[in-house]
């Protein structure tokens, strides 16, 4: 589940297709965000130095990557399922195709503006 999202994010970043890093953030702000995240994890998991089990944090991490890619984070078909059903790998099926479709639509909009 995470590997597919990370792979897609990495490929888009390396292609420099669209800037997956927020354009309004300076390098110092990004470093500050990383430092705060590290502090938060150390406080959340104080007794574990290595090999943390981040199972409960995976969805938030995936949402962060999906936001960077401009893809929707709410993957369920309605709000009841969004609240009461756990996310499973099939909820993230077709992410690459979804991104390609979005890219095609965005490129079409840019061409119309010119």
Could you characterize the architecture of this molecule?
61% of the residues lie in helices and 0% in strands. The chain has five helices and no strands. α1 packs parallel to α3. The N and C termini lie far apart (38 Å). The chain has one domain (2-113). The chain is mostly helical and 114 residues long. The longest helix has 19 residues, at 95-113.
Order of helices and strands: HHHHH
**Distance separating the two termini:** 38 Å
Q: Report mean pLDDT, rounded to a whole number.
A: 82
Q: How large is the radius of gyration?
A: 17 Å
Structural descriptors:
114 residues; single chain
Write a brief caption for the model:
By secondary structure, this protein is mostly helical. It is 61% helix and 0% strand. The protein has one domain (2-113).
Secondary-structure blueprint:
Blueprint: H1 2-15, H2 27-44, H3 58-69, H4 79-84, H5 95-113
């Amino acid at each position: 589940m995470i590997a597919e999202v990370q792979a897609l994010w990495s490929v888009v970043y390396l292609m420099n297709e669209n800037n997956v890093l927020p354009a309004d953030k300076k390098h110092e702000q990004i470093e500050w965000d990383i430092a705060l995240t590290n502090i938060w994890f150390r406080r959340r998991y104080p007794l574990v130095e290595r090999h943390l089990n981040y199972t409960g944090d995976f969805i938030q991490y995936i949402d962060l990557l999906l936001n960077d890619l401009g893809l929707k984070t709410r993957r369920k078909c309605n709000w009841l399922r969004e609240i009461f059903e756990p996310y499973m790998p099939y909820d993230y099926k077709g992410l690459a195709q979804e991104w390609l479709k979005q890219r095609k639509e965005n490129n079409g909009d840019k061409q119309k503006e010119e």
